User: Fold these one by one.
Assistant:
Number 1:
Amino acid sequence: MSESILIIGASGQIGNELTQALRLQYGNKQVIASDIREGDEEMMRSGPFEIMDATDKEGILSIVKKYKVTQVYLLAAMLSVTAEEHPKKAWDLNMNALLGVLDLAKEKHIKQVYWPSSIAVFGSTTPKENTPQKTIMEPSTVYGISKLSGEFWCNYYHEKYGVDVRSIRYPGIISWKTKPGGGTTDYAIDIYFKALKEGAYECFLSEETRLPMMYMDDAVAATIQLMQAKPADVKLRTGYNLAAIDFTPAEMALEIKKHLPDFKISYKPDFRQKIAASWPSSIDDTAARKDWNWQHQFDLAAITKEMLKNIKTESIV
Ligand code: SER
């Protein structure tokens, strides 16, 4: 049977590119995009789109029925920085949206669910380097608490009700098409835009803050790969550690200087430094590589080339 896929949060950073990748693979009509706000021109033109609130379970159910949806990718969430500003709202969105979709799967309205987790599930007591899949998890942000709780809800629905739910702990994701909003890792995107526009960037993290990161194309490929893996190969029903590269703002600046020799970076760490400092600097993703053959393609040099080229060609600056 062919899949009918609903993306919730399709106008966001990951949702936008994931929708386009899925439309290419499954056909435009098979992938229904939804969000509380409209997406970009390409998304609105290329296939079905519905305005929807991710916490409105009945609203989601009516779309599921209308399009005979089989899979839901639930991407709507409040990221780390915004969640610190609106803790209760973040909890409501991040948690209730997930529980609603898990219930739809439990009630057999849909067959498969994807829900993103994050490196924010880890905290300052977690081993920082090569952070293992299973380790101490004491998150200090509302975002991290919601992602960790969500992972265990996913696992619970799988164990207790047989729900086929899959999840990845994304590192910082670097992309140029749609900007993220309110994340701690967003500096690694802003830096390219500022480098091209102003030749300089003031970084809100300190120069030696090492964080795990990944290019959007790799993140989208991993997500689809996990969703297409045989159920028996998906051995973890919490969230899979996923890694590509890790670097500091200073290392990133050096890479940019290879293309823009006059580029200048300065550092003015703010409250976001504390969030970044509580997260891992690198991730051990052996389980993802072993269970469903995950492999990343883009290193820092390739990402930098792609980012500068695309931002320039699309004249976003
Ligand atoms: N990129 C996210 C953030 O910075 C982490 O998952 O909030």
Note: The radius of gyration is 19 Å.
Number 2:
Amino acid sequence: MIKILTIIGARPQFIKAAAISRAINLAFSDRIKEKLLHTGQHYDNNMSGIFFDEMKIPKPDYNLKVGSGSHGKQTAAMIDGLEKVFLKEKPNGVVVYGDTNSTLAAAVAASKLHIPIIHIEAGLRSFNKKMPEEINRILCDHVSTLLFTPTEAGYYNLIGEGFREGNEQPFTADNPKFYHCGDVMYDNCLHFSRLAEAGSSLLDDNGIKNGKFVLVTIHRDNNTDEPKRLTSLFRAIDTISKENEMQIVLPLHPRTSKLLKKNLDKTVYKSIVGNELIKLIPAVSYLDMIALEKGASLIMTDSGGVQKEAYFFKKPCIIFRAQTEWVELVENGNAILVDADYDRIIEGYNTLMAKTDFTYPALFGDGKSAMFICEEIVKNLSLN
Ligand code: UD1
Ligand code: UDP
């Protein structure tokens, strides 16, 4: 039996972890024993607890309850707590997701104890080291033993950084194995899309008309923390709603919620709050989010996960960033990068609303990535 310790801490990681836990439960419970550790990076019920209940993720065996803080303070507290648990549990491998501070902390603690790291959602790059996530993902990839890239671009990014194809077992941090295997978030979208139809009444409860609204999310630190950028984004949202009589639904990440009044230009803040077409709501559960994504006519976001879900549900997407790790979405014409530029946002909206010739090739795998990952864990970790 292979013992893995899965490290999660932030909202998208609970969602990604659900896919692997589900695959283990379905087909690998005789070969993989999974324990879960929650760092406590996200802790509000609608940022954490709700996902465990709704997605039937097993209750974490550990919760470090680290909470919020500066990058150094938060990451250091996680490393300290993780090291103690790693020494106690002695897992055959540590599974980490994506690029948050929880990912980095686990990568540092596990690599120093020579525990193999399995990085799911490896290889992605924005080529912008001002993003905390870019630093986290680069550092994590370079101490990992098994790396699973969700896209072809991710696979070639790793080759670009010196990862060699054709390494042979046994795999180690010095002799890693990397795969292009598809995206566990696509697995989830297929699985939970059916459940969202029966499991969400959010649209009805809020009087939101199916197919007649734009869904928006904003949480990236450079957008929320820089008053000029936040103001430009909201000014554009305000204009789009008024010029097109379009309802806007915006589930607020707590980071954004806390900074809205402080960082928005006063006139724009007043206009947004007084605009009946704009519905600001607290962050929602995953099934409610899927219902919103499926019901929207267009999605505007700076989220990594939401960009892809827009594609999974065949919605055009405006990306409030200067660059994206999910380059395929832009190259295939499904999404437009607009940064936080007012004019580009308006132009992007008009272009995508008028466009009709979208295509949706299978860029993110076949919906069975979690099964593939578990198979490779079984084949390769037992040798360590
Ligand atoms: C983190 C990740 C980011 C990811 C996002 C997913 C890092 C560096 N960033 O960003 O990559 O896209 O999660 O949502 O790891 N807060 C609450 N309640 C909570 C959680 C957060 O109020 O339950 C507030 C706190 O004021 C906190 C702020 O949000 O300081 C930011 O939280 P933090 O986890 O540091 O970063 P995120 O912006 O959530
Ligand atoms: N999400 C959610 N409720 C919300 C906003 C987002 O369930 O109110 C989900 C969304 O569907 C996606 C994931 O959270 O699966 C994306 O996480 P987030 O935007 O926080 O982080 P990122 O993907 O940018 O790291």
Note: The first helix runs from residue 11 to 28.
